[in-house]
Protein backbone atom coordinates (compact mmCIF):
# COMPACT_ATOMS: atom_id res chain seq x y z
CA UNK A 1 0.00 0.00 0.00
CA UNK A 2 1.34 3.42 -0.95
CA UNK A 3 0.33 6.54 0.97
CA UNK A 4 -0.07 9.77 -0.97
CA UNK A 5 -1.14 13.31 -0.22
CA UNK A 6 -3.21 14.49 -3.16
CA UNK A 7 -4.93 17.87 -3.15
CA UNK A 8 -4.55 18.01 0.63
CA UNK A 9 -6.14 14.63 1.31
CA UNK A 10 -4.36 11.49 2.49
CA UNK A 11 -4.93 8.70 -0.03
CA UNK A 12 -3.83 5.07 -0.10
CA UNK A 13 -3.38 3.06 -3.26
CA UNK A 14 -2.57 -0.58 -3.74
CA UNK A 15 -0.41 -0.48 -6.86
CA UNK A 16 3.02 -1.56 -8.05
CA UNK A 17 5.52 1.06 -6.78
CA UNK A 18 6.76 1.65 -10.32
CA UNK A 19 3.31 2.69 -11.56
CA UNK A 20 3.41 6.20 -13.03
CA UNK A 21 1.64 8.79 -10.89
CA UNK A 22 -0.54 9.70 -13.89
CA UNK A 23 -2.09 6.22 -13.96
CA UNK A 24 -2.74 6.32 -10.22
CA UNK A 25 -4.38 9.73 -10.46
CA UNK A 26 -6.61 8.80 -13.38
CA UNK A 27 -7.33 5.11 -12.78
CA UNK A 28 -7.25 4.73 -9.01
CA UNK A 29 -8.15 8.18 -7.69
CA UNK A 30 -10.47 9.12 -10.58
CA UNK A 31 -8.82 12.52 -10.98
CA UNK A 32 -8.96 13.05 -14.71
CA UNK A 33 -7.54 16.58 -15.16
CA UNK A 34 -3.99 15.43 -15.91
CA UNK A 35 -3.92 13.89 -19.37
CA UNK A 36 -1.93 11.18 -21.14
CA UNK A 37 -0.24 12.65 -24.18
CA UNK A 38 3.09 11.03 -24.96
CA UNK A 39 3.91 9.07 -21.82
CA UNK A 40 7.53 10.06 -22.32
CA UNK A 41 7.95 13.40 -20.56
CA UNK A 42 7.85 15.26 -23.84
CA UNK A 43 4.47 17.01 -24.10
CA UNK A 44 3.43 18.22 -20.65
CA UNK A 45 -0.21 17.09 -20.85
CA UNK A 46 0.26 15.12 -17.64
CA UNK A 47 1.85 17.94 -15.61
CA UNK A 48 0.91 18.23 -11.94
CA UNK A 49 2.49 19.98 -8.97
CA UNK A 50 4.74 18.00 -6.64
CA UNK A 51 5.66 20.07 -3.59
CA UNK A 52 4.69 23.12 -5.62
CA UNK A 53 6.87 22.36 -8.61
CA UNK A 54 5.76 21.21 -12.04
CA UNK A 55 6.33 17.51 -12.67
CA UNK A 56 5.57 15.11 -15.52
CA UNK A 57 3.28 12.61 -13.81
CA UNK A 58 3.61 10.14 -16.70
CA UNK A 59 7.25 9.42 -15.84
CA UNK A 60 7.09 9.82 -12.06
CA UNK A 61 6.87 6.45 -10.27
CA UNK A 62 4.32 6.67 -7.51
CA UNK A 63 6.81 5.23 -5.02
CA UNK A 64 8.79 8.49 -5.17
CA UNK A 65 5.89 10.49 -3.78
CA UNK A 66 5.69 9.29 -0.20
CA UNK A 67 5.65 12.33 2.07
CA UNK A 68 5.32 14.77 -0.81
CA UNK A 69 2.33 16.91 -1.75
CA UNK A 70 0.72 16.28 -5.11
CA UNK A 71 -1.64 18.92 -6.51
CA UNK A 72 -3.71 18.44 -9.62
CA UNK A 73 -5.90 21.03 -11.31
CA UNK A 74 -8.83 19.60 -9.32
CA UNK A 75 -7.02 21.00 -6.28
CA UNK A 76 -6.72 24.51 -7.70
CA UNK A 77 -10.41 25.29 -8.10
CA UNK A 78 -13.72 23.97 -9.34
CA UNK A 79 -16.00 24.78 -12.23
CA UNK A 80 -18.13 26.82 -9.78
CA UNK A 81 -15.21 28.53 -8.05
CA UNK A 82 -12.22 28.50 -10.40
CA UNK A 83 -8.83 29.48 -9.04
CA UNK A 84 -6.97 32.58 -10.18
CA UNK A 85 -5.06 30.83 -12.95
CA UNK A 86 -8.19 29.04 -14.16
CA UNK A 87 -10.09 32.35 -14.23
CA UNK A 88 -7.34 33.89 -16.35
CA UNK A 89 -7.40 30.97 -18.81
CA UNK A 90 -11.19 31.35 -19.11
CA UNK A 91 -10.96 35.13 -19.57
CA UNK A 92 -8.39 34.76 -22.34
CA UNK A 93 -10.25 31.82 -23.91
CA UNK A 94 -6.91 30.07 -23.91
CA UNK A 95 -8.26 26.61 -24.74
CA UNK A 96 -9.13 25.23 -28.14
CA UNK A 97 -9.55 21.45 -27.66
CA UNK A 98 -8.46 21.85 -24.05
CA UNK A 99 -6.32 18.72 -23.87
CA UNK A 100 -3.11 20.50 -22.90
CA UNK A 101 -4.75 23.02 -20.61
CA UNK A 102 -4.63 21.21 -17.23
CA UNK A 103 -0.90 20.74 -17.72
CA UNK A 104 -0.53 24.37 -18.78
CA UNK A 105 -2.44 25.53 -15.70
CA UNK A 106 -0.31 23.36 -13.40
CA UNK A 107 2.85 24.71 -14.98
CA UNK A 108 1.63 28.32 -14.74
CA UNK A 109 0.67 27.77 -11.11
CA UNK A 110 4.18 26.46 -10.34
CA UNK A 111 5.75 29.53 -11.95
CA UNK A 112 3.47 31.99 -10.16
CA UNK A 113 4.09 30.33 -6.80
CA UNK A 114 7.77 30.94 -7.42
CA UNK A 115 7.24 34.57 -8.48
CA UNK A 116 4.28 36.69 -9.47
CA UNK A 117 6.64 39.09 -11.30
CA UNK A 118 8.41 36.90 -13.85
CA UNK A 119 10.15 38.36 -16.85
CA UNK A 120 8.72 37.50 -20.26
CA UNK A 121 11.76 35.27 -20.83
CA UNK A 122 11.18 33.39 -17.57
CA UNK A 123 7.47 33.01 -18.40
CA UNK A 124 8.28 31.50 -21.78
CA UNK A 125 11.01 29.25 -20.37
CA UNK A 126 8.69 28.04 -17.61
CA UNK A 127 5.87 27.22 -20.02
CA UNK A 128 8.10 25.78 -22.73
CA UNK A 129 7.93 22.09 -21.62
CA UNK A 130 4.17 22.04 -22.24
CA UNK A 131 3.08 21.75 -25.85
CA UNK A 132 -0.29 22.72 -27.36
CA UNK A 133 -1.17 20.78 -30.47
CA UNK A 134 -3.88 23.32 -31.29
CA UNK A 135 -1.38 26.16 -31.26
CA UNK A 136 -3.00 28.43 -28.65
CA UNK A 137 0.36 29.23 -27.09
CA UNK A 138 -0.07 32.99 -27.49
CA UNK A 139 -3.42 32.94 -25.68
CA UNK A 140 -1.93 30.73 -23.00
CA UNK A 141 0.91 33.21 -22.47
CA UNK A 142 -1.68 35.99 -22.26
CA UNK A 143 -3.59 34.00 -19.64
CA UNK A 144 -0.49 33.53 -17.50
CA UNK A 145 0.32 37.25 -17.75
CA UNK A 146 -3.27 38.00 -16.67
CA UNK A 147 -3.00 35.58 -13.74
CA UNK A 148 0.26 37.18 -12.61
CA UNK A 149 -1.44 40.56 -12.61
CA UNK A 150 -4.47 39.20 -10.74
CA UNK A 151 -2.10 37.93 -8.05
CA UNK A 152 -0.77 41.44 -7.52
CA UNK A 153 2.29 41.06 -9.71
CA UNK A 154 2.68 41.01 -13.46
CA UNK A 155 5.14 40.09 -16.15
CA UNK A 156 7.85 42.74 -15.93
CA UNK A 157 8.43 43.16 -19.67
CA UNK A 158 5.39 41.63 -21.40
CA UNK A 159 5.68 40.93 -25.12
CA UNK A 160 2.16 42.28 -25.55
CA UNK A 161 0.26 44.96 -23.64
CA UNK A 162 -1.77 43.52 -20.75
CA UNK A 163 -5.19 44.92 -20.03
S1 LIG B 1 2.07 12.58 -21.15
FE1 LIG B 1 3.56 13.18 -19.75
S2 LIG B 1 4.85 14.53 -20.82
FE2 LIG B 1 3.47 13.77 -22.34
S1 LIG C 1 -5.88 23.55 -26.69
FE1 LIG C 1 -5.73 21.70 -27.86
S2 LIG C 1 -3.79 20.89 -27.28
FE2 LIG C 1 -3.84 22.84 -26.40
From TrEMBL:
Keywords: 2Fe-2S, Iron, Iron-sulfur, Metal-binding, Oxidoreductase. PROSITE patterns: 2FE2S_FER_1, 2FE2S_FER_2. Gene3D superfamilies: 3.10.20.30, [2Fe-2S]-binding domain. It comes from the Bacteria. The keyword Oxidoreductase applies. Residues 1-76 form the 2Fe-2S ferredoxin-type domain. GO terms for molecular function: 2 iron, 2 sulfur cluster binding; metal ion binding; oxidoreductase activity. The keyword Metal-binding applies. This is (2Fe-2S)-binding protein. It comes from Sphingomonas ginkgonis.
Amino acid sequence: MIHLNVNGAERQVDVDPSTPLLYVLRDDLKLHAAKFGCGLGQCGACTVLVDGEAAFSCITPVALLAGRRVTTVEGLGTAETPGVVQQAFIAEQAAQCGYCIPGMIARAEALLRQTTTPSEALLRTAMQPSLCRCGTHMRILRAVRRAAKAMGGGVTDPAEPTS
